Every structure is written in C-alpha cells, then in structure tokens.
Amino acid sequence: MADERLLTDSGHVEDAAAYLWDADRVMLFTTDYFTPIVDDPFTFGQIAAANAFSDVYAMGGRPVLALNLMCYPTRTYRLDEMTLILKGGAAKAVEAGCLIVGGHTVDDAEPKYGLAVVGEVRPDRLMRKGGALPGDRIYLTKPLGTGILSTAYKGGDLSDQAFAEAVASMSLLNRAAAESAVEAGVKGATDVTGFGFLGHLLEMCVEGGLGAEVRPDALPFFAGTEAQAMDQNVPGGTFANRDSVLANLDGTSGIPEHRLLMAADAQTSGGLLLAVPPGIEAALLRAFERRGQRSWNVGTFAAGPPRIRLVP
Q1: Would you tell me how many other CB atoms lie within 10 Å of the CB of residue 294?
Q2: Angle (nearest 5°) at CA 293 between 43 and 89
C-alpha cells in the first residue's frame, strides 16, 4: 500500500523509517538488537540501547518511546543477569530522554538484547544518507575498530583495560553529535555500524549519486586496533565488508591488507558519518566544541559515479 507520507520507501536505504506525521513532525521508527559484545550484563545493555538509539540520531531526531527486545535462556541462566541487561538499557534511555514503555521476551539459547525505537524530528531538520553534495567534507564522530578489538577481547588476546576505551565509546550516545549537526544545518548523515566505515560511506555515495575521496591516514582508530588486525583478530563481517566495497574502491595499491580491513571493520554503536558543506563547517566545529564532541575530517564528497577513492 502506497502512502505519500512515507518518506523512506523500499528503493532507498535509510537508518530508520521516516513518516510525515503532520506538518511539523516526522516520526522515525527503527529497531536493532544483537548478542553480548562484553561480559558485563549492565554494560551490554547500555551498548545495545545506545546502538538502537543511534539510527534516530543519524537522521537528526530524538528518541521518544522504546520497547525492549529480549531473547534469553530463562530456564538455564540466572535471571538476575537478564535484569542487569534491562537496567543497563533503561539507564541509557534515561540519558537519552526516551521512555521505555514495555517490550517482549523470548526464551532463547543465546542472549540477545536491543530496542524498537520511535523518534521524532522536524521535517526541515531531517538528515538522510542521500543528503551529501559534491564538495561536502566527510566527518566522523567516533574512532573505528570496535569489531577487531571485540574479536580480540573475546579470544582472550585483549585485556579489560585495553578494551575499555572502545567499550566507553560504544556506550556513548550519538546525541551530542546529532544535535550539533542539526544545529549547524547538516543534511547528509548516517551512522557507522555493521557495514563499517567504507560500507556506510558507499551507501551515502549511492544514495547521493556522487563519489568520495578519503584520506586513509586521517581515519581515527582505537589504540591497539592495528596490532590486532595484523595478528588476524578480524571478525568475519569485516572481511565481508571489505569484499563488498572492493568493486567500488580505487587507490588501494600500496595499502596494506590489514589497513583496508580496518577501514571496513564492522562496528557496534559507532559514530556518525556526516556530509558537511564548507559554509557550515566552522559552525559545526563550534557546536562540537560546546558539547565536548570529538570529530575527524577524513575526506570529501566529489562529483562522479558512486565510488570511493583512497588518496594520500
């Protein structure tokens, strides 16, 4: 059934469904959940919730309502651990100013947790993957490498201390980044999650009908990411991400294999990827500074076919 108020149809890839509720409000609707990425159940709940809220932030909105999605082996595991996961998600929802109003639990052999989230944004503030223009600067708001470091941590090759920076980043809401981008007038954005930096950047190129030039040396990574990538602590999803973008990737000659994998690393609760017109760049950086938001300029969108070119 067609509905002209649905702003995101099946022919386009967006972070959340966008529905024009009335002249002043676009309703955003999204969901995400996954298996534990850390051992501590409360922290896992926080990360899963931050990750679910991120799709709303990536479109310039604010989360309003959410439902818990919980799969848990209730007959074999202690329920106090499930309670801690839910408390972690609730704590992050309070921070986001979002109400958790219920949910659903399924008995499952492998724990999984996340949220279905409803958000809202004004129509003139909506950010979309296809909002980039040639000449826009490419900004990232979190370092990369959570997939590689998580793999190393699960395999016992990374200590709690060495993993702590990535855990803190995954638990961090993209609220400050989104509010800064909306304030400055950014129109093109997404968040960096399962398809990695290169995969999500290519989505923006395809949606916008343009190319991108990226400076690999400008990409930010968590400490230890390169060492773990060189030791082959790389998740299967990262290899798949790399393979999926190779046909649309230029300038790879001379770049070590592990560095390509790092740029394609599958992320959990990554930062925002923003298309920033030069005329609002200074305003965005001021907004970031006021909110204590880190950012990295890693390249530029360019006219041309939807390809990514790696440049010195």
Answers
A1: 16
A2: 20
